[in-house]
Amino acid sequence: MVEKKLSLKLLKEKYVVCRLNENDKIPNWIMKSDFFSITRTLDELSIVCNQENIPDDIICEKDWRILKIEGPLDFSLIGILASISTILARKKISIFAISTYDTDYILIKDKDINNAIETLVNDNYEVIK
């Protein structure tokens, strides 16, 4: 019997990756999202949140789904994202990754999500829908 590697959970909503200017304030509309991530750099303000909350004038990439690696994951674990991204890259599936203190989230375009899930399951990952 082959042992499962890790469990991933597919979040139900569609998400968006937004780009704002580096000096923009964090907008209130992201607070309506059940999941959001904010990253500010010297060059930009990047926000990931529910797709339904985005004003029309925001530069964004829509139609992302999220696979959450069930955690919490220990900081000593090595190669989790590398392994998953390599498996998906072989199938030409692009990802956008977000890491938090407890776990990792892998964003995959909605058009590729079924292929990604099938690919991961075939490589002994468990995917919970």
From TrEMBL:
Source organism superkingdom: Bacteria
The CASTOR ACT domain, residue ranges: 60-120
Location of the A9CJY8-like N-terminal domain: 13-57
Listed Pfam families: A9CJY8-like_N, ACT_7
InterPro entries listed in its UniProt record: A9CJY8-like_N, ACT-like_dom_sf, CASTOR_ACT_dom, CASTOR_mTORC1, UCP008459
Name the UniProt record assigns to this protein: Amino acid-binding protein
Native source organism of the sequence: Vallitalea longa
